[in-house]
Specification:
Helix content: 25-40%
CATH architecture of the largest domain: Alpha-Beta Complex
Bound molecules: adenosine monophosphate, magnesium ion
Number of helices: 11
CATH class of the largest domain: Alpha Beta
Strand content: 15-25%
Largest sheet: 11 strands, mixed
CATH superfamily of the largest domain: DHBP synthase
Length: 341
């Protein structure tokens, strides 16, 4: 199959919208990462998404809307909990996914057989226009091969999906750079299942106490139930062995330089670059968590373009947006962290 890379003109958005409605796939830019979209009301269209990505069928998809009233109109949920209204009012359109009790129109492929469904109203004008042109909600996981870093630019999508899907819309680079924050309000106390551009602190300011799923920050134990199925899978890992270093600035520089060699690299902060004697992949300023989130996946993909064997990454903190960066990096590193006193 030839993959057409299209600019987001009005005409192209109409073409892609029609194709999506009739069951074809298209990758579209969003404010978080690029999504691989399909008609969310069609089980067979959604199945093709799993096939193109090589995604395990038990990992449910997020349903994207371009208007709040579509939730009821398309029977996406059986009930909108009161906390969902408050979150939607504050953070939609935007990088927040809300899990609610599933409605009758949701195919089993979308929810992976769960009784709940994940809904997001994205803010990116192109995503909104594509959903509106399609005339149906769109199920869209990240447009990468399952397990690879999520795509934040059209060339990342082409790298993974060229020849597998008919359309990719090029909307430039993604502003947030990490996937949406996922919260469930389908239980008594809401729970954060995946950190993202909307922080735990912002969520708690809006709806009070939010629990954090253990799998957000810690490796899941054998037999532990995944509150969000996606968290049990290996993810984001580059080919090189990525090891996180938790230490002061000086100790990190000293450690990496003492291990310098041709096949060693550093996934570091911008400030570290000039002090390191190895190939560097800076992913943002030390205290600029928003920039780190935006650049992280591009840096991980850049490491994959090399033959490096070992990459030492700086281990971020877990407050604010840093929690989202930490959550992705700890998985990319297979939870391997060296702590230097
Ligand atoms: P992706 O679209 O690739 O960012 O993946 C969507 C994420 O949302 C995965 O981690 C899923 O496990 C999670 N997710 C989607 N639907 C549900 C649900 N009903 N309950 C819990 N987690 C969900
Ligand atoms: Mg994904």
């Amino acid at each position: 199959m030839e993959t057409r890379l299209l600019l987001p003109t009005k005409e192209n958005i109409e073409i892609v919208g029609k194709a999506l409605y009739s069951g074809e796939l298209a990758a579209v830019p969003t404010e978080t990462v690029y999504g691989l979209a399909a008609n969310a009301l069609s089980g067979s269209a959604v199945k093709a998404v799993f096939e193109a990505k090589g995604r395990p069928m038990d990992n449910p998809l997020i349903v994207h809307i371009s208007d709040f009233e579509q939730i009821e109109r398309f029977k996406l949920v059986s009930e909108i909990p009161e906390k969902a209204y408050r979150l939607a009012e504050k953070f939609w359109p935007g990088p927040l996914t809300i899990i609610m009790p599933k409605g009758s129109a949701i195919p089993d492929e979308v929810s992976a057989g769960l009784q709940t469904v994940a809904i997001r109203f994205p803010s990116h004008p192109v995503t909104q226009a594509v959903i509106t042109a399609a005339g149906c909600p769109l199920a869209a996981p990240s447009a990468n091969t399952s397990g690879a870093p999520s795509p934040t630019a059209a060339h990342h999508v082409m790298h993974d999906m060229s020849g597998k899907i008919p359309y990719v819309i090029d909307g430039g680079t993604c502003e947030v750079g990490v996937e949406s924050t996922v919260i469930t309000v389908a239980e008594e106390v809401p729970m954060l299942l995946r950190p993202g551009g909307i922080t735990l602190e912002q969520l708690e300011e809006t709806i009070g106490k939010v629990r954090v799923s253990e799998a957000v920050l810690y490796k899941m134990k054998d037999g532990q139930k995944a509150e969000s199925p996606g968290m049990k899978y290996k993810h984001y890992a580059p080919k090189a062995n990525l090891i996180l270093i938790k230490s002061s600035d000086e100790k990190y520089i000293e450690y990496v330089n003492s291990h310098a060699g041709g096949d060693v690299g550093a996934l570091c902060y911008d400030e570290d670059v000039e002090k390191l004697f190895v190939r560097t992949f800076p992913y943002g300023g030390k205290n600029d968590y928003i920039k780190q989130a935006e650049r992280l996946f591009d840096s991980l993909r850049a490491i994959d373009e090399t033959e490096l064997k070992t990459v030492y990454g700086r281990c971020p903190g877990t407050k604010g947006t840093a929690m989202a960066v930490y959550n992705r990096l700890i998985r990319a590193a297979g939870f391997e962290v060296i702590e230097l006193a």
